[in-house]
């Protein structure tokens, strides 16, 4: 059975994002996958990258450098426990699903903190092992999110610009950088502003997509996909 | 005298980012500006968008909706104190400078949390008052940041893509959305990997730019600037 990690960032279980997460757990479990959820708000996950992420002495206590310190701490096994726990989940997973509401053309800070703190050098990448040779190669990722704006507002030439523009930092800058292959994003536009019926249709479409997820080909994660 | 708010996200005062922040305070103060610094790590600024941001009762306690709750709380003056303090600083400022190291093609989570929590509906935008009619119009913003990668690695056609691609969510999706005019970013490429002399040159160039900052024209914050 395949292993899936869902990194989930919504405060309210009864929210549309909460339903999306529940459906993914149910549908993937039904397929025989083993599914783990990191429910970031429920965990009160720490988003701040600080000295507390290193247990014990620093490599250089004269001038704190987060990137260097966490790299060194990873190598000697002295990252903080919450980070190590997340790294174990990532290590085991074949697929990472990020489920969140879009905040300011990006992910909520609590999820950005997960990226900042979990994907440390040595674990997820280590020059020259980045992009296609990143240390998390052979894994898949998908960004599944809701927007406030409608699909029309995120079309090319409209005020918010093509939705793909804002996927570049997340899909290419983070996942591709670590070697992870990216499945097409799953975007639910403006669930807050549509009818109950339309919301149900969106949830059904998500369950449907998950049924054939493992047959999907990753996107070609290059500038052409995003900007042409 | 003009008013400047520097939102600063680095853990180490002795860092290159710390020097950039100090130089901005000195140079702008010398010009007669009144400068305020939000030193996010020193403040242990909370990046998580939670129910704690609303003091007292919720508008709808059945299903927590962060956007709705903070909008309502803003209108009745019941946002949490730390958010109100930051909003006051923004309100007074003519110019916002964001000083940070680039983390994953974006800002560190602690700064993303500042955006998520401070720029609430009602305060920074309120449909249809967004983009050119955003509620923070008549203010300027500048993103000043350091990278790990070299300038060459962030050129068009190279592996990281044009550095402008990753500026879209921050400059257009956040600042422009709130009506803020965006000055050209100030980017120090790979200060960790250059000579001490080159680092000094970068600091001098920053001080120089600040001398004529108020004469600069904002960029034309449209897709053409980013993707052509």
Please tag this protein with its features:
homodimer; 228 residues; alpha/beta; Rossmann fold; six-stranded parallel β-sheet; 6 strands; flavoprotein (chains A, B); metal ion binding (chains A, B)
CATH superfamily caption of chain A: Flavodoxin domain
Radius of gyration of chain A: 18 Å
Which band does the percent of strand residues of chain A land in? Answer: 5-15%
CATH topology of chain A: Rossmann fold
Give the structural class of chain A.
alpha/beta
**What is the CATH class of chain A?**
Alpha Beta
Largest interface: A-B, 50 and 49 residues
Number of strands of chain A: 6
| Major beta-sheet overview of chain A | 6 strands, parallel
Global outline of chain A: globular
Mean pLDDT over all positions of chain A: 98
Order of helices and strands of chain A: EHEHHEHEHEEHH
What low-confidence regions of chain A span 5 or more consecutive residues with pLDDT below 50? none
Secondary structure: helix percent of chain A: 25-40%
State the CATH architecture of chain A: 3-Layer(aba) Sandwich
Number of domain modules of chain A: 1
* Distance separating the two termini of chain A: 38 Å
Assembly of the depicted chains: homodimer
Number of contiguous helices of chain A: 7
GO molecular function (chains A, B): dihydronicotinamide riboside quinone reductase activity; metal ion binding; NAD(P)H dehydrogenase (quinone) activity
Family (chains A, B): Belongs to the NAD(P)H dehydrogenase (quinone) family.
Domain Flavodoxin-like fold (chains A, B): 3-210
EC number (chains A, B): 1.10.5.1
